[in-house]
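By way of example, what follows is a protein record of this kind.
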Amino acid sequence: MNKMIARFPEQLEEALKIAERVSLHKHTAPYRSVFISGLGGSGIGGNFVSEFVRPLCKLPVVVSKGYHAPNWVNKHTLAICSSYSGNTEETLSTFEQLLATGAKVVCIASGGKLIELAKAQGLDYVQLPTGWSSPRACLGYSVVAQLGVLRAAGLIPLKLFTSVKNAQKLILKEDADIQKRAKKIAGFLAEKTPVLYIADHMEAVAVRWRQQINENAKMLAWHHVVPEMNHNELVGWRNNRPDVAVVWLRNRDDFQRTAVRMDINKEIVEHFTGSSIEVWSKGKSPLEKAFYLVYLGDWMSYFLAEIRDVDPVEIKVIDYLKGELAKV
């Protein structure tokens, strides 16, 4: 896992080359919506894409993490099916439903049934490099390939790809410091239940941290966003919780009212737990900040696995689940 995490900057560079080569056959109807189907490591890529393009794309971008395509998908929809393995059960189910909608369907995978079906149906597809044992380590491929599809469809500007390149340069420059910070945060979270809070426009970062803590460090964690948590979860902070450790994921340019809320929230929460830290992003664009925090969080989860003496690659319980599902 440490080798896969260390290759993230290299992966971004390779993903940019893949995205540059993406081209789509002409679709007869104008696009009015974007639908992304994906789960796990591929699904979180859709979350990031949705957040990155929100200020730039004039169409709604909806991410699905289940078996079904929504009824509103039609010939005016650009539908992306993303699965690193190409064999994700839920994504394949959604893919089959999409074929009858008239949507422009584009598949992203390293191989498997999804690529086979795309070829058989004469659909556009983006084939990712193989050889990665953990799909969650392929976030760079997932995000940038999806952005490549949106760019090829004429829905987003090229400047997002400049941001990807700048993010790659940033994390290479900050690599040693990032790993140093990650070790410190891992030590802070050890033997606690991590609680992650972040501004709503960057929720994907907190989801990524939670998922990496789950899979790499084999720990439960939860996250929420500000301001939404101010309307519910904040009231749950009522008793002393020495068993939890709170991480405030922050950006210097968060919306001013959200930043004020986070300051006040931190003051309130610290009445009930002595374990609370702020983790600030680096970078200029939202994408740079997000990828900086992703890289930091990925290393943190690896070091947390080391502290807990668990294998960060192993996912036996998911393999068991899939085996049991295969019997039904």
User: Anything to note?
Assistant: Residues 131 and 276 are 38 Å apart (CA to CA). The chain has a mean pLDDT of 97. The domain at 2-165 is CATH 3.40.50.10490 (Rossmann fold).
